[in-house]
What we know:
Layout: H1 11-25, E1 53-61, H2 66-72, H3 76-91, E2 96-106, H4 111-128, E3 131-139, E4 149-160, E5 175-180, H5 189-195, E6 202-203, E7 206-207, H6 208-212, H7 220-224, E8 232-237, H8 242-246, E9 256-260, H9 269-277, E10 292-298, H10 303-312, E11 317-325, E12 329-332
Helix pairs in contact: 1-4, 3-4
Family: Belongs to the AIR synthase family.
Pfam family, one: AIRS
EC number: 6.3.3.1
Amino acid sequence: MLTYKDSGVNIEEGYKSVDLIKKYAQQTLSSYVLNGLGSFAGMVELPEGYKKPVLVSGTDGVGTKLELAFKSKKYDTVGIDCVAMCVNDILCHGAKPLFFLDYIACGKLDASVSSEIVKGVCDGCLESDASLIGGETAEMPGFYKEGEYDIAGFAVGIVDKDKIINGSNINEGDVLIGLASSGVHSNGFSLVRKLFPDIFEKYKGEEIWKTLLTPTKIYVKPILSLLDKYEIKGMAHITGGGFIENVPRMFTKENQTAVIKKDSYPLPDIFNLLIEKGAQKDNMYNTFNMGIGFMLCVNKEDANKVIEELNALGEKAYEIGYVKAGGEGVCLE
């Protein structure tokens, strides 16, 4: 006679994981959450004050950056990454994050590992004022290798219909403002892993994985603080595809080009190291964030004030380009 445990699924370890997770998730719950973890579904009521509330959703994962977490046995930062990838995306349309759900899959569940991942998720939720209202941990022996995990997330935010940011009022001469990234973030790691086959090699006095596992920066709070003060015409989260693929996503009108001056901000050392290791420089802006994790499009007369305010909030913000009529996409100068 076989039990479920004999097949490789340890129910008791699952119970232990849930108990560990609950204490972290509880810290993220806002007053709009109507129930706690453990129900079949999470319930959140809409906040008051919205005339025509629109729900804005996004989902993403962490990708092959996870392999560095497996090798270094450092699991919490990838949880932050998972939240950041989702909430920064919905932020691009002016949405304030409301709640988040996660999905973790593994070959053999280790409660200490899964709870460490979710601790990172909760840290990301706290940083973005989102409530972790539920999730799923799937133990699939024989499908995932033991010791390996995958994680994905789903975020829902809210914005008034007449305050949705969609790029429709972007015009020639508008200014592009870049906010500094915290490093490589969570994209391009299929290449990064080839460039750094030994993640324990030394870099600036410590093992390189510590730099590479720096979590994706969450831009929610500083950006939301600007929306009622300035006309933010468009926003872009610089993720997979770098500048080339993501910046044009802020445009609604045809025949507009984002002109970006590559020397308008300091390129972080880690990207120079990637080039030294063999990354093709010409393709870098189509793969990595290159030091700019988030971008705003504003009126020219507002640009300096927006930059000053972002810097006062602890961000590193730079005027990195402008919009011109004609063509489509991105022009790097």
